[in-house]
TrEMBL record:
Protein's organism: marine metagenome
Xref: Gene3D superfamilies: 3.60.21.10
Keyword Nuclease included in the entry's annotation: yes
Name of this chain's protein: Calcineurin-like phosphoesterase domain-containing protein
Domain Calcineurin-like phosphoesterase stretches: 1-190
InterPro entries documented for this protein: Calcineurin-like_PHP, DNA_Repair-Maintenance_Comp, Metallo-depent_PP-like, Mre11_N
Annotated Pfam families: Metallophos (PF00149)
CDD domains on file: MPP_Mre11_N
Keyword annotations: Exonuclease, Hydrolase, Nuclease
The keyword Hydrolase belongs to this UniProt entry's keyword annotation: yes
GO MF annotations in UniProt: exonuclease activity
Amino acid sequence: MKFSHISDTHLGQYRSKKEREDDTYDAFKQAIEISIKDKVDFVIFSGDIFDKAQPPNDAILTMMQQLNLLKENGIESYFVLGDHDQPKVVQNPIHALYSSLTKVSHHLEDGKPLYFKNVLLVGFDHQMPGHDIESLQEDFKKIDLVAKEHDGHKIIVLHQALVEAHYHAGELNANDLPKNFTYYAIGDIHGKFGPKKYEFLGGPLAYPGSTEISSTEAIKETKKGFFEVDISSTEAIPKWIELDTRPRFEIETSVDELHAKIDEVISKIDESRKPLVNLKITDVHDWKSIQQELARLDEHILDRSTNLEYDKKQYPISLEDTGNIDEEFKRLAIVNVGQDLANLALETLYPSLNEKNKHEVKEIIIRNFEKFKEECKK
């Protein structure tokens, strides 16, 4: 017996271009197609199925079609809700949507045990830090007793960040989890993590990560996919399945080598599936010197993020050099937010400050200028 563990599909997320939204649908369809081809017995979705609590129609249609496809092939599916799936207010119509989903899938909620043959399945929707997490830990103790008495495989499904997987985002420690499960199917972290085995847990813990780059992630050459987990023996054995996502390139080059580097990248591009590019350019003297090269690259790619590292010799910074700071601040603003917004900020809002506040703002800009430049270029 085996099952697929898929997470953080973020169906319907929009990132600058409709093609990027479609990429989320394509990755999701691939995961379902592979699961059917590999004859898994059931599928688990560990949260953030949709990117928003009110997803676009295409996202809803894609999800329903794929769940029905699983059903037609005799494959059951189970899900928990992530923080992106859940409404911020009770009146949000997402509740009606998930009522429809439960006609073709099974919602694992509130730790209520469900069974697939002799497999115990338990899940909890995403809980916010604070009181909800404390309540969740109490629920863990109760469900652990149920798992302890079950003879077959026991799977718990969560959408929470663990400190072990992401130190800064962690809401729980792995040691907080119930101890008697044979597989811990977790979502929320977008990078693949695991499978990890801990002496204090009854089986492997795994985050498959997102099936596509999310709108909050930088463009990286990281592989995306999901886990197929073999539970035909007493031990759960996860196997990583890589998805064929849109090509991505991470490029670092100096201004002097930019032309040749772009030629190299263009030579690798399949024009029928334009890639995403994360470009870092060092030793930049001025923006105009690279605009033509970037325009040439843009003809062959779908989207890019650009990080410019300016030649520090060209940009000495001191508290006395406020004139240069003002000019460079304005130039960066125009490049990153456009002429209209830059004018609004610098010619309307900034002058309206009183002299004391204006001086404080200028000092803040100067002190954080290098950091500000880097942030603007991401």
